[in-house]
């Protein structure tokens, strides 16, 4: 279920994103990746800016590494540290034959997730890299992938395409499919998601993201 990579991938890339919600800037997301012909590694870090109280503490740092095999990213390991302002959690995943296994982390899923359901799922950092990296005409708007963070399983699909020769928006859904309680699924099971890409020197570069969480709508704008 891994997604094919563009053939002309940059070896190193750093991205800075401005995160907006509630009508104001709430933080910044920094993504850094390195890829060779056979391996990749990446990290992502979010922190709030200019906020007070509980919101001021919200942050996360995630990282992943793996292999590049037949133009696909195959994760090997993932580490995540998240502070929601109310709860701090650290998670480690290791992958064998495309099956993610949690090796560290105290939080358990609200409902059990079978290995069959997790088979082929990738980690949040690998997913971030796949969607935010530069795309080719063949890979643009071709996302259909499950993601496991150690506690919850989701499916991200973006196959709808709208735009022109200079700018294209890929849109779809973020679906909660495993590890959630009945109450959580009743609150929000499916939410819209879109990423806009601009044509730059023969490739498509991510420039804007729109998403919806249980807290409301958020927008991300690329600043680098």
Model description:
It is a single chain. The protein is mainly beta and 224 residues long. The chain has 3 helices and 13 strands, in the order E-E-E-E-E-E-E-H-H-E-E-E-H-E-E-E. The protein has a 13-stranded antiparallel beta sheet. Strand 1 and strand 2 form a beta hairpin. The longest helix has 9 residues. It is globular and about 45 Å long.
List the main descriptive attributes of the protein structure presented here.
224 residues, 13-stranded antiparallel beta sheet, 13 strands, 8% helix, disordered N terminus
Give a quick precis of the structure.
Mean pLDDT is 90; it is low at 1-10.
The count of DSSP E runs of length 2 or more, i.e. the number of strands, is 13
How many angstroms does the end-to-end distance come to? 31 Å
Please indicate the percent range of residues in DSSP E strands (runs of 2 or more). over 45%
> What integer is the average pLDDT?
90
Form type: globular
Task: Give me the number of helical elements.
Answer: 3
**Rg (CA only):** 17 Å
Proportion in helices: under 10%
Low-confidence stretches: 1-10
Overall structural class, as computed from helix and strand content, comes to mainly beta
Main beta sheet strand tally, sense and closure: 13 strands, antiparallel
Biggest sheet: strand arrangement: 7-6-5-4-3-2-1-13-12-11-10-9-8
Pattern of helices and strands: EEEEEEEHHEEEHEEE
